[in-house]
């Protein structure tokens, strides 16, 4: 966990956020033990901004890993992942009941929650709803 915290804080230092000034770093621990990082990358066309969590996840999947088990997110105030990121993270979560997410502030401190606690109702298409 210490390595993951350090990786998230380090990734945050590379955030490109000239419009919001809100730097975010993310570090994912993949099932095979490798760490994948990302930062938010903003754009002058604001909606084209990519969050740190999705940057890390897309990097992981593009490298061939399909499952993550721990996520560390670093912000100035311990912010939690946004709804879009939660949905994208759900797609590749090893086990929502045991996967953990730690949301760090600038001191590298913050609560740890399971992914299921953070996002109990991910969208899915196999519920038989009409
Ligand atoms: N942001 C993230 O990187 N992750 C989130 O889960 C929420 C928001 C970024 C997007 C934008 O660059 C900045 O934080 C302010 O919204």
Describe this structure in words.
The termini are far apart. This protein has helices at residues 2-12, 52-62, 83-91, 115-118; strands at residues 25-30, 35-39, 68-74, 100-104, 112-114. It is α+β, with helices and mostly antiparallel strands. The mean pLDDT is 97. Helices cover 27% and strands 20% of the residues. It is globular. It has a single domain (2-118), classed as Cytidine Deaminase, domain 2 (3-Layer(aba) Sandwich). The protein is built from 4 helices and 5 strands. Tetrahydrodeoxyuridine binds at residues 17, 20, 22, 24, 40, 42, 49, 51-53, 81-82, 85.
Q: Please state the structural category.
A: alpha+beta
Record field, number of beta strands? 5
Q: What is the helix content? A: 25-40%
CATH architecture: 3-Layer(aba) Sandwich
Bound small molecules, deduplicated: tetrahydrodeoxyuridine
Radius of gyration over C-alpha positions, nearest whole angstrom? 14 Å
What characteristic shape results from the CA principal axes? globular
Distance between the termini: 42 Å
Q: Can you tell me the residue ranges where pLDDT is under 50 for at least 5 consecutive residues?
A: none
Give the biggest beta sheet: 5 strands, mixed
**Element-by-element helix/strand order:** HEEHEHEEH
Number of domains: 1
Q: How much of the sequence is in beta strands?
A: 15-25%
Instruction: Enter the CATH topology name.
Output: Cytidine Deaminase, domain 2
Mean pLDDT: 97
